[in-house]
Amino acid sequence: xxxxxxxxxxxxxxxLAGDARAHADxxxxxxxxxxxxxxxxxxxxxxxxxxxxxxVLIAVHTRRATYDPARPFTGWLFAIARYKMxxxxxxxxxxxxxxxxxxxxxxxxxAEAADARADVTRLLQTIPAKQAAAIRATRLDxxxxxxxxxxxxxxxSDVKVSVHRGLKALAERVKGSLR
Amino acid sequence: xxxxxISTDDLIASLAQNVAPVRRxxxxxxxxxxxxxxAVITLVLVGAGLGFRPDLGIAMQGTAFWVKWLxxxxxxxxxxxxxxxxxxxxxxxxxxxxxxxxxxAGLAMIGGAEMxxxxxxxxxxxxxxxxxxxxxxxxFVLSVPIFAGLLWSFRRLAPTRLRLAxxxxxxxxxxxxxxxxxxxxxxxxxxxxxxxxxxGIGMACALGxxxxxxLLRW
Lengths: 179, 218
Fold this sequence. Notes:
The complex is a heterodimer of chains A (about 180) and B (about 220). Chain A has about 180 residues and is mainly alpha-helical.
């Protein structure tokens, strides 16, 4: 059973007069009201709602002098809740969803870069594995000849020869596919 | 999961332990106290730093002094009322602030009448007075303690339109600072006050609007 405007307002006014019990009743009664208010506006971010609920409760307590008993209580409450929710969004701006992520990636050239990488991988599969490994180590992963030799378990001159032959073979394949 | 460090039930229990009664008009008192504390500092700065005008007693018997005081007081009064309104989270927009145009228009009419009675050769002197170079800056600087006092008041208040609340607080600080500056400033022409006082008050208002979103956050 959720408390309505009249009951909440009565508790609030009693709390303003110093009635600690009415104040505690008020804060407890606000929980379902605030959770429902925030849940309607923050679909999919349920884990953050309780944080904001607590912020609102603290504000209701510490800033209760700003309540004017001549005005509706829920209007005052929801104004605070809305402010705290927006403030929360501002602080946590990085977690908001990005509209049209695909368009952004397209514009930034991610798609093209990914396509190029796929082409290279496909071409490397067409030459002997040792040559492909040597090229990947020295030309794609940016290792020195000595580092590549250590990683692939080959001699340094073997790496150099493999790279040389592999590149030549790749050039043949590309030329062949263009012809 | 992002669980708050304290359970909500514990939070309510701890908040409910400290329920001091809130006096009627607590918001007004709080703003009045901040404004008053700032004004005392400004008054000391005017008295000790600039010095009260030596002919203050005589000047207070003339109309020029009261025109200045009425002008700055009406701006300061409207602005502090708007600030009190903006201190509530559910405040409507203070559309009634158009009344600020009335003292400005009134002073402009007085200024026009004064100039009509004076020879054209004196107009520039009336407009610039002796202190046009420093007047606006002094009003602006003197508004800072009052603005700081109002910021202190806002620590227990709940504005939700921070820029507007900052602007009204700045305007109030500027208006009240200008009123206290009258105790030093010997200028008499209305056109001088209209230009240079208003400029200083406007600068205070602009500073408030600029800083409001940052300093009034809660």
